[in-house]
UniProtKB/TrEMBL annotation:
Name this protein carries in UniProt: 2Fe-2S iron-sulfur cluster binding domain-containing protein
Matches recorded under CDD domains: fer2, T4MO_e_transfer_like
Organism: Bradyrhizobium denitrificans
Gene3D superfamilies with a match to the protein in the record: 3.10.20.30, Nucleotide-binding domain of ferredoxin-NADP reductase (FNR) module, Translation factors
FAD-binding FR-type domain: residues covered: 104-200
UniProt cofactor(s): [2Fe-2S] cluster
Length: 332
């Protein structure tokens, strides 16, 4: 069945693009080499907002955090979530220009391997025909079905054709179940990279906080630090929280990587600690309070479920940690 196309016009440039019915405005612009600003690709940040001058669009993710009534009144739409349902004209903002689109690419990927890491947590290894360049800590959008897209962080280092993701299957989770149902040999579309929670190599104390499968970007950044033999001249703390010891996915791999980093220590913490558990019990916020005496003197990297990330951000605000010293991505 042939794909339906509609024309997308971008003003004030006067550029006209044939837009396939499955494409978002951001995808179509990127394919045509028009650089619209974007950051998260998931409707959280609002960086990609443009003005809808004429035509109709629908939203893949109507509940996207960056969607608000004020924008609706001003005809402002998210380019990363909007698809044309008619001929469409948009007006880009002053931050966009016509040039080869940077960064993000779209590739077909073959699932090569699936490895169990913890109860309902698996590592998925996808291979692309051409490498996708990314920075450790960034994430990809996986197309798992019609109108079904989910974000997962890469846990491996760049430089090859492999993209590895650590993901949990949730009961009732449409996206997580679709991913878990894939068998080796399955082919999906992957968009990458997205995100700004990447390692700043400047000297100073670093604190990495992971919860659950948030271990993926933290592990990638630890691998970067180990491979580059980085020495920050200050302590490096890696706090990894989970419900119980069995839920600490990639625990041994993470510990081995951390052992290669100067002045780094690994601090696992579990909510349900069994008798004889030799490490911390409670939440990651408890571990931060117990082990980081002066949070304002440290730089934080946080990844995990939204409720955990929000709790850590709240704790750091109350400790007067400057926002410029807290790095995270939101796509839960």
């Amino acid at each position: 069945m042939a794909l339906m196309t509609r024309q997308l016009r971008i003003e004030p440039d006067g550029i006209a693009i044939d837009m396939a019915d499955h494409e978002t405005i951001l995808q179509a612009a990127r394919r045509a080499g028009v650089a619209l600003p974007y950051e998260c690709g998931w409707g959280s940040c609002g960086t990609c907002k443009v003005t809808l001058v004429a035509g109709q669009v629908d939203l893949i993710f109507p509940g996207a955090p960056a969607v608000n009534p004020r924008d609706a009144r001003r005809n402002r739409i998210l380019a990363c979530q909007s698809r044309a349902t008619s001929e469409v004209t948009i007006a880009r903002g002053p931050g966009a220009w016509s040039m080869p689109a940077p960064g993000c690419v779209e590739r077909q990927a073959i699932l090569r391997d699936v490895v169990d890491l913890a109860p309902e947590v698996r590592q998925f290894s996808f291979e692309t025909a051409e490498p996708i360049d990314f920075r450790p800590g960034q994430y990809a959008i996986l197309h798992l079905g019609a109108d079904l897209r989910r974000c997962y962080s890469m846990s491996n280092l760049p430089g090859g054709n492999l993209l590895q993701f650590i993901a949990r299957r949730y009961d009732g989770g449409t996206g997580s179940n679709a991913l878990a149902a894939l068998a080796p040999g399955a082919v999906i579309t992957i968009e990458a990279p997205f995100g700004t929670c990447t390692l700043r190599r400047r000297p100073g104390r670093k604190v990495f906080v992971a919860g659950g499968t948030g271990i993926a970007p933290i592990l990638a950044m630890m691998r970067e630090a180990a491979e580059a033999r980085l020495d920050f001249g200050s302590p490096v703390d890696v706090i990894y929280g989970a419900r119980g010891p069995a839920d600490l996915a990639a625990h041994d791999v993470l510990r081995a990587v951390i052992a290669r980093i100067a002045q780094a220590r690994y601090l696992p913490v579990v909510e349900n600690a069994p008798s004889g558990w030799p490490h911390a019990a409670g939440f990651v916020t408890d571990a931060i309070k117990a082990t980081i005496p002066d949070p304002a003197a440290a730089e934080f990297y946080v990844a995990g479920p939204p409720i955990m990330v929000d709790a850590v951000k709240s704790l750091l605000r109350s400790a007067d940690v400057p926002i410029t010293q807290v790095h995270y991505d939101s796509f839960g």
